[in-house]
Design a protein that fits this description.
- The protein is α+β, with helices and mostly antiparallel strands and about 300 residues long.
- The protein folds into 2 domains: about 150 residues, Roll (Nuclear Transport Factor 2, Chain: A), CATH 3.10.450; about 130 residues, Glutaredoxin.
- It is about 35% helix and about 25% strand.
- The chain has 9 helices and 12 strands.
- The N and C termini lie far apart (about 65 Å).
- About 5% of the residues have low confidence.
């Protein structure tokens, strides 16, 4: 194998570092421009610097988003100050950067993406320095996992609910003290509803879910409702008297162990512990779809 001369190798390394420093400077400069537009409440220009997922990947929504920021600014005087680059990489042909900023006297991160070799950048809004990296991947599918150790030490260690995969072993204790485990429920269909008392749609769908449970009363189906950000006392004292819930309610001790990023999230598991359905929203159409899937599994 032919060796690269030391001098040539040194020149290549220096050139690479110089190029990286150059695109980092450009990214920082444009991030500061974005922050200045936000701080001066020029939200139409601020939105132009945001990655498309911020406005639902629909350019028609940019005007609505800028108006929303304008309304929020009337009661929120927070400013953004860009500090420094934390990490930058070239992921295939896409340049990516993680920038530290300050907002409300706290450290935040801004992720930036460039698809033209670092000349023009689009960014996220300021994010907490500790976040669920899976949620970030949903927003930016191309984001490099090399950023994950900086923002999410638990990345890759959470329990996932992915259609077509086996359910991870579980053992819950419901609010009445009954133990519900994957081992004891083998051979039955399992329906999970991840929800929270602070989630309006979660509460709104309870009557529909109760109706679904009633329809499946004589079937081999177990309905479990893991509650996040919710205590047993609050459920018993405040929720159930107003909103009786037919699911077996479980209070999750560590919400961060589960890769569930929106509520409600519904998961259906077949008799062989395979995940056959996942849906993260409330709609009557979804409840009807769940009923159809359950009837198909129970034939």
């Amino acid at each position: 194998m032919r060796k690269i001369p030391t001098l040539v190798l040194f020149v290549l390394i220096v050139a690479s570092i110089t190029a990286q420093n150059s695109f980092e400077k450009t990214a920082l400069s444009q991030a500061k421009e974005m922050a200045n537009y936000s701080n001066s409440h020029d939200f139409k220009k601020y939105v132009d610097y945001l990655l498309p997922f911020n406005y639902g990947n629909n350019s028609n929504n940019k005007e609505k988003l800028s108006e929303m920021f304008k309304r929020s600014s009337e009661s929120d005087t927070a400013t953004i100050r860009v500090v420094k680059t934390v990490k930058s990489i070239i992921n295939k042909d896409q340049y990516q950067i993680l920038i530290l900023c300050r907002e409300r006297n706290r450290d935040h991160y801004i992720f930036g993406i460039s698809n033209d070799k670092g000349k023009n950048w689009l960014f996220t809004q300021p994010q907490q320095t500790k976040m669920n990296f899976n949620a970030l991947q949903e927003m930016i599918p191309t984001i490099s996992t090399s950023f994950s150790p900086l923002v999410d030490p638990k990345f890759g260690k959470r329990i996932n609910y992915i259609k077509g995969e086996k359910i991870a072993p579980f053992k819950f204790t419901d609010i009445n003290g009954k133990i519900l485990s994957s081992d004891s429920l083998k051979g039955k269909v399992i329906v999970l509803n991840f929800w929270s008392m602070s989630c309006g749609p979660c509460i709104k769908e309870i009557p529909d879910l109760n109706e679904l449970v009633a329809k499946m009363k004589s079937k081999e189906v177990v309905f479990i409702a893991p509650a996040v950000y919710t205590s047993k006392d609050d459920i018993v004292k405040y929720l159930l008297p107003k909103h009786p819930f037919s699911y077996q309610i479980v209070c999750i001790e560590n919400d961060d162990d589960y890769n569930v990023n929106s509520f409600p999230t519904h998961v259906i598991i077949d008799q062989n512990m395979n995940i056959v359905y996942k849906y993260d929203a409330y709609s009557k159409e979804n409840t009807k779809k769940m009923e159809e899937i359950l009837m198909g599994l129970l034939k």
